[in-house]
Amino acid sequence: MSSDNYMKEWLVIVNPNAGSRKGEKDWPKIQEALTKQGFSFKAVFTENKHHAIELTSKLVATGFRKLIVIGGDGTLNEVVNGIFRQDSCSVEDLLLSIIPVGTGNDWCRMYGIPKKYKHAIKIIKQGHTFVQDVGFVTYHDQQEEHERYFINVSGMGYDALVAQKTNKMKDKGKGGALSYLFNIFSGLFQYKFTHFDIDVDGERVFSGRVLSMNLGICKYNGSGLMQLPHAIPDDGLLDITVIKATSKFNMVKHVAKLYDGSFVKLKFVNTYRGENCKIVSRPSGSVYLEADGESLGHSPLYFSVLTKALKFIIPKHQNGE
Length: 321
Known about the structure:
It is a single chain. This protein is an alpha+beta fold. The chain contains 10 helices and 16 strands. Strands 7-9-8-14-16-15 form a 6-stranded antiparallel β-barrel. A two-stranded antiparallel ribbon has the order 10-11. Helix 7 (about 160-170) packs across helix 8 (about 180-190). Residues about 1-5 have low confidence and may be disordered.
């Protein structure tokens, strides 16, 4: 097939393990619905962690420019990283969409992308596009420095511990919508407050012990927690929420406020906004990181934002504001 035809055809990247193997189970139904709606597509299947990064880079190089992800936040994150790591075309030439089958689907929650497959496919066919910001983080794993792009939310401290515990459950096939909530409470008894030094746009804004911190482009993570309630996904800024060291009783008492974003009004919560953020911990390397729900490495961490960097298909009249 010529590259011209590839540009007209959709690349569908399927994660069969997404949503406790819902991706595998429901693929025939999704495939049938795509065909009925007149989509011409090539489907490929991920075989392991990070495989979607490799598949995306490789197949974009053959000429594909329109992509559909069948998976959750983690699969979408890998595809985004594959897009930014390829050099065969400009990122501006690519169009990304998703049919959610994951556990959290927090990026989809931001834009109101429905879980029903036929409705999600209808939105893709309508083709309403939105260009949003993309986050970029440099982190460490042992002594090595690594890079990651993200399109939703990154979490540190307690948030990263909860994500790590949830991801381990997923790896054992025990992940589900309630697993994150379960780990919110069980993680409280494991987490030890860590000292963060936080700089935003070159200015030290906080130095002290932290329970949890979130930073990102969109509002939700952890299966519906509104961790960044004021985030605007195309304003060129990172929204930052810091929950300072407080009693575990306080966290349990106010956990419901994480779901409507009102927790940011509590006296032990600080919020910031900026283009760059640096996080150093004491002792060094003691702050762990998750991005779009994927457990990564540890501090020191350096965040920045790429303004209006990637084009997505979202429901009409939904711009994340």
